[in-house]
Records
---
Amino acid sequence: MDANQILSDVQVVFRDVLDNDDIVLTEGTTALDIDEWDSLSHIQLVSALEKHFKIKFTTTEISSWKGIGELTKTIATKIG
Amino acid sequence: MGIYDFHCLRPDKSLFDNFLYKRVETKIVLLHVKIECKQGFIMLSFNALKKNLKKDYSGFKVVKVAIMADSASQFIKDALKAYGYEVQLNFDIYEAEYSQIDLQVFDPSSELYEFAPDYIIINRCTEKLLKEYNKKERLAQGHYAEDVVGLTRQYFETLGSRLRAKVIVNTYPEINDSVFGNFAGKVTSSFIYQLRKANLGLMGLCQQHKDAFICDLALLQAELGHRFVFDPKMYVNADMVYSLDFFPYIAKNVTDIILSISGTFKKCLILDLDNTTWGGIIGDDGIEGIQVGYLGIGKVFTELQSWAKQLKQRGIILAVCSKNTEEIAQEPFISHPDMVLRLDDIAVFVANWETKVDNIRHIQSILNIGFDSMVFIDDNPFEREMVKAGIPDITVPELPEDPAEYMQYLRSLNLFETASVTEEDGQRTRQYKEEAQRNSLMKSFTDESSFLENLLMVSAPKPIDQFNIPRVAQLSQRSNQFNLRTIRYTEEDIKLICEAPNYYTLTLSLKDRFGDHGLIGAIILKKLDDSSLFIDTWIMSCRVLKRGMENFTLNAIVELASFYNFERIVGEYIPTKKNEIVKNHYSDLGFKNVDGQWVLDVAGYEKKLTFINNQG
């Protein structure tokens, strides 16, 4: 799966969990750019991404992401 | 597989043989938003369920619920609200701040009391239980369960003295703290010993408090597994002790309890026969060929029958609906040595070649209960679809293809939640069978009066007393059709009414030549002023419709009113979806409509004709 594909999959998950079809993600997007992305929805996003990519994040990874760029990078490493 | 893999959509492969695994996978693809739990029971995922939150709840019944928890409870709130949409309830939820249970309960001016909920959910988690336990000295650990139960008792007593709410507490899901290993069971002060003792203690406590109910999370976890229920990452990052997809289960469980307390629950189980009640086809295989008993696959059907029999003994009415020749279909019930169910257990037995939709309608007309209180079990997907399409309100479980999975699946649905059990419940099937005899007697008379006279009915009206309070409370919670105002009372409520000086009560029983109906009606009268008596509650079991019980009851009410020198009796009809049959109740009985209320003058009252002999 290439980087674009991962980003586009992540976007699908974000739209579904946050219930907002207008969300457009780029590598530079951070939580500040998306209203619905708060600590409660973050947990749900993590869980949904894990389900979607069939991977598991560690607690350290979850709290270290500064934005979508780092998130997609973690996913890329995990799915190899 | 690792500890986390349970959270993937893909179930642990080792649980399934290849065939089953494929089937389960297909289902996931098709439904997409639903998660699969082991053997087939499908529950919405949290993400799918929460989409309900944006839907329109207007028109749904509002139920006020307070949630107090010792872990973060935001998702319990969301899941409950969203699950309410599935059953057309609009939960108005107050969520207490994190870990404020004591404060909210013991402070009389707390937000909890201001909110005045109908239901209070107290959710306490095992992780906090363990945390508190670990802080204690060994000696104190030895009576930790008593402390937990004692505090819960204080909650119940304090809440009970200030609110009329039902309180729902959970049992603690078990976790192994791995300190004593298996030896923990031999150590009184071990965590696991104390946890189990606390759970038993909580159950005992709820037996003493009529307004307290158990939400059995320990049992839910036993079914789903700790790895599904608990998410370490959620716990560490958000102080949430449950995994996201466990919240819908909590919501369903709590909603099941609330629905049953407020009068919505199943009363009847209708069974198909071939490949449902026994293995094989009686018409083809014959009585020697059908599979039942402890040989091979017969075990499945024996266990299903045993379950049905247990349900019957606690008051669920059993009926049979089968495409068969009646005589052939009844034969196993009469002479097969391994059948658990016998003809006596079945209140209505319908075996013919009509459609099942028609036959279930027929069963409903005999039992006189709502379709929404019936469950129909049939192995044939085609028949199930027909019934669902023809009778949308009935519950039709999607039985797994393999009979070996029937029981595990059926048990996981929690179909028969109940909020009360009384001694009379076990008699219900017998009463419906007697009813069938009455029906055949009725056919031998051309006019209704001679039939009623011939029934030799007697009744003994008397006030509610401590012995019949449970039954009256049950009637109050169950009666939907013959219920003029549908105000639900619990045992506690009725106890208070009996003690109040401005209330009068009557209970009505009915016996006839075929049997005893038991207590079938209740009246609660409230003194409005020195001259007026208000009929707060008039409920009657639909088993005794068309017996002239209404006339008899009114005679008894007027007699009471006259004894206490009231001049008039005031009635009110509050329409619901289900009580249409009593729409004209008061006008039929001669009450006059005065400004929307129904009024009857005691002075000019002429005793109504009745064929029921008063032995009160």
---
Amino acid sequence: MTGGLELRALGKRFGGVVAADDVNMSVPPGRITGLIGPNGAGKTTIVNLVTGMLSVSSGSILFDGRDITHAPAHAIARAGLARTFQNIRLMPEASILDNVMVGFHRHETSGLLAALLRLPAAARETRAMRDRAMALIGRFGLAALADHPAGGLSYGHQRRVEIMRALATDPRLILLDEPVAGMNDVESAEMAEVIRGLAAEGRAILLIEHDMRFVTGLCAHVYALDGGRLIAEGSARAVLSDPVVIEAYLGSPLDA
Amino acid sequence: MIAQQLLNGIVVGGVYALFALGFNLVFGIQRILNLAHGAVFMAGAFTAWYTVVNGGPLWLGFLLAMALSGCLSVLIELVCFRRLRRTGDEEFGAIISSIGASLVIMTIAQRISGTRIVRFPFDTFPIQIYQVAGLRISLLQLFMAAAAFALVVVMAWFVYRTPWGRRIRAVTENARAAMLTGVNPNAVYRQTYFMAGALAGAAGVLVGLAFNSIHYMMGEPYLLFGFVIIILGGLGSIPGALLAALLFGMMQTLTIAFLPTGLTNAVIFLGLFLILLLRPHGLLGREEAGQLRGRR
Amino acid sequence: MASLYNAWGPILDLYLLQLGFAFSQYLVLRAGVFSLATAALAAIGAYTAGILAVKHGVHPALGILAGTGMGTAAALVLSWPLARLRGVYQAIATLAFVQIVLSLNIWAEGLTGGAMGLMNIPRVVGTPGLLAAAVAVTYIIWAIGRTRIGRTFDVIRENEAVAVSLGVSVPRWQALAFALSGAIAGLFGALEAFHSYALDPNIFGFSFLIATLSYVVFGGRKSVLGPLVGTAVLILLPELARPLAENRVLVYGLLLILVINFLPRGVADTLLDAWHRRRLARRSAAAAEALR
């Protein structure tokens, strides 16, 4: 049994519409796996199925050998699967620190009564989480801005805060949903470094991307999706030069 | 006995339909719960009363009530909701804002009426009772049913058969897409609110005539009944609201006839609660797409 | 001193009671539950305490405990159906709940005294008792804001999908918020019963609901200061000038429209944010100065 994420013949129907059909994928630890496809190919559906936001119609999902096909969404997160969102979702008025601290939710164990009365145990836990959050923020080079509201940050910095929040859960797998959408070249180069670092720590990474250039530089193994089906898989170079993939991208003329 | 109650229920249901259709139209188009709708309804009743006691004919009062309630409704949209839509927190904000509007309108009505219950003069509507197949029906009831029917037909024609109605439906389906095809959403909102207000005003006049009692708090129970109807019919659905209004009118007259007084409302709202539990999106409503809550 | 208390004592008592209800409303909103059930939960607490005292001669302390317990239990039961609903549907369901409790209180004359109300409740709670309860609840709300409970409530309110993606079981946490809100409503309902000789069903009707909602909207839904400030301002306002008192409902209505449109986060939260921003700006200016 391999670690990481395993999709077996995964399918999803909305009424009569097939959004995902017979999708087989594996996302091993320590590597960056890519999932590409034109707009509307069903990439986000896959993310929602894996994270438990949508119910699965057929097939199964295994995470570190455990069947999570029908597990509730919060339980999947607690099992060590984290994600970022395509459209950044932060608490805009809260500080960076507060945004990152909520990521520690699954590691907080102080009793409810202790928290309600703010007994020493709860206060201690909050201090410990604050220190860990500050360490994380420092690692991402945003320590000077820790008290600033997240909504006022640049696009690139907001993406970083989302990744920090996901990292705070200490996940074994991170789903990154278009992490460089809307970024300039410098910002996306920095983001590529961050993602490489995460993989080097031994985490499994599933990178969902529209931008093929970004995928080429990063991913060891790439899956291409179109119309809810896998149309190619293999090394980045092989998949991107596959005529079927090129046609899928060029077939939708506005996307190319 | 039951047939008589059902008949009465249908008449009442028609009036509820007038009230709830506008309420539901507004919810459908903006996902906004306009809690000032009951106050608009009340304002309609007061307008007709004011016209009649000052010597105007009832038909004029009826038209003025619809016009004034329609304008009031448009004003509420402008003052209470337009700004909120830009900030994006309209779901919560609209409830607060419309409660505020409702308080303001009710205070004005309270001042005008001096907190009294006002009544139409005795001969405003001729009292005439017919016996048909063992059922009693008054001329007023016939008028109420006919007026409600006519207004619903006009509204349905407007929404389903005219270019304005097509725009309303387009904005209801997808405001952004409609905007891209050149529809001005603010104009559509104005028309919708006017229609909703005018229908509520008409319902207010009919209720004022039926019970011959008009006071500044008369909108409150109707607002609650409006909730029951739109939940029953599905938020945003026109045919659903119509069906639910008739059903609710009949259910209500039956519960009033057969249950101990005082328990009626408890039973009605318990029913609402159960429907929400079993069918969270109403009997005819459909599940709203794009609301991810996750497997539980 | 005595005359000062005679003039302002009743207003202080009113403030302390209303503050409790405001906190009950605040808690559910903070956790992203769109509930308006505080009025009904307070009624349940008040009638539990009142009936136990009048009909069964139960000691007030036990009555207050029972009222708190019943408020909590009712909220917990209610939280189960509410978890299946969202947004406006929660608001409608809880409005229906308020209506059900109101009608049942009027109907069950033998138990509650019906529309005439429940009389002859011993008046055993005075300003000190109310003050103690208000301080305790304020402390708990403050504590919630500084521990994981507040953080979890905040992320649920801001974005449910994010909360779930971080491992938060939204129904469970919202049930907790609801139970706490019910406990506070029940407690202050019971205190109200022992503070005012008599109860009648309409105390906990729509004007109650609108008042508690106004306190929180006016003050703010995030910091502990929101309900404290909102309740104080809205209760003191009518005392300041006669025209304000005579037009109380009108003033509330206009304030609700103005605040939600122009200060949607409430007066206290907006001021706190502005103060926080200024402090940050001054700090970065100082840092820039030091670098030069």
